[in-house]
Amino acid sequence: MLRLQLGIALVALTALLAAGCGSSKKSSTTAAASASGSAPGALSAEAKSAATGDIPDNQVFLVFRNSAGGYSIKYPEGWTQQGSAGDVTFKDKNNLVHIVVGNGAAPNAATVSSQLKALEASNPTLKFQPPQPINLGSAHAVKAVYTTRSAPNPVTGKRVTLMVDRYELGSNGRRAVVDLGTPRGVDNVDAYRLMIQSFRWR
After folding, report:
1. pTM here?
2. CA-CA 20 to 30 A from 69: which of 15, 21, 54, 105?
3. Using CA of residue 179, residue 132, residue 54, residue 137, what is the dihedral sign?
């Protein structure tokens, strides 16, 4: 009987050790993915949320200074802010601005295209136009435009198509990915141009 109990205990101990090794491997994989500076996921609208109207011409903008993320940017007063440090979102229903900052090499059109192709593989509703290098004041950046569709509304079955301008900016080993999304049919071009042109590394 004692021999049987010892055998059971040995099997349990082996299983625990194996689980521990598996957890360590998973953690290091996640860390490696974070260290690689991979691009954030694509924006997507919420089917249950009503599309907002245009940002008005008299909209007041505030300056968001992110000391932990190392940047500042203007955003519309009254919008909800979520997240902190390297991952911040501003939103007003289906008007969305997502900013992710981390370590990474300066972006170029090829790397941004590769990132979007990877996102397209996991999200079949994503469609994007070829990225292009642009100048934002004194900052070099790459811009891409993509669209995604929300899940069907559970009541009406309708989907919301989100139009997104993605900007990637690099500076001294840091990289920022700024996604500015708005529902199709809503014109936020001027407001979003003001926001991205206000981006400053700190």
Report:
1. 0.79
2. 54
3. positive
Higher pLDDT, 149 or 19: 149
Pairing of strands 174-183, 200-201: unpaired
Q: Do 134 and 193 reside in the same domain of the chain?
A: yes
The two three-digit tokens of residue 21, written as one number: 């090794």
The residue among 89, 130, 76 whose CA lies nearest residue 108 is 130
21 and 111 in a single domain? The answer is no
Q: Cα 126 vs. chain centroid, distance in angstroms?
A: 14
What is the pLDDT at residue 154? Answer: 86
Does residue 69 sit in the same domain as residue 138?
yes
**Buried/exposed 130-144: b ≥16 CB within 10 Å, e otherwise:** ebeeeebeebbbbbb
